[in-house]
Write a structure and sequence with these properties.
Helices cover 5% and strands 39% of the residues. It is built from 1 helix and 10 strands, in the order αββββββββββ. The strands form 3 sheets. Strands 1-2-9-4-7 form a 5-stranded antiparallel β-sheet. The longest helix has 6 residues, at 9-14. InterPro entries: RmlC-like_jellyroll, RmlC_Cupin_sf. This is Signal peptidase I.
Length: 124
């Protein structure tokens, strides 16, 4: 059945920087979408976004699965410390992040648009 895809977020995400669903998947793949992007992010302690995301055109929901994960915004810092903690930010909100501990996060962004790929995260 070509309209059904079964996988494992950890395995599939490892081959695409954690991204499981979005415009970047091949056309015809059930994981291809211009409406939404989904990421299973596995981050070692000390890993940080390589640079701030600016001029954001998407809305994002980020949910902590495990660990301790810090989101930085121009006017505040948010720390996700308990499984299920989450933060939502809208279009136009610049941001960055830092894994205070080994962390797993689930990110959902919409819409899925090209032009936001950055260098791989760095470990500080």
């Amino acid at each position: 059945m070509d309209d059904v895809y079964v996988g494992n977020a950890g395995v599939d995400g490892a081959t695409n920087a954690g991204w499981l669903l979005g415009h970047f998947m091949p056309a015809g793949d059930p994981r291809h979408s211009t409406d939404v992007e989904v990421k299973w992010g596995v981050h070692p302690p000390g890993q940080a976004r390589s640079r701030w995301a600016t001029s954001e055109r998407r809305t994002t929901l980020l949910v902590l699965v495990s660990g301790r994960f810090r989101l930085e915004f121009p006017d505040r810092t948010v720390v996700l410390a308990s499984p299920g903690d989450y933060v939502v930010w809208g279009r136009g909100v610049d941001h960055s992040w830092y894994a205070e501990q080994e962390s797993v996060v689930l990110a959902v962004r919409w819409p899925s648009v090209p032009g936001y790929r950055v260098d791989p995260p760095v470990v500080r």
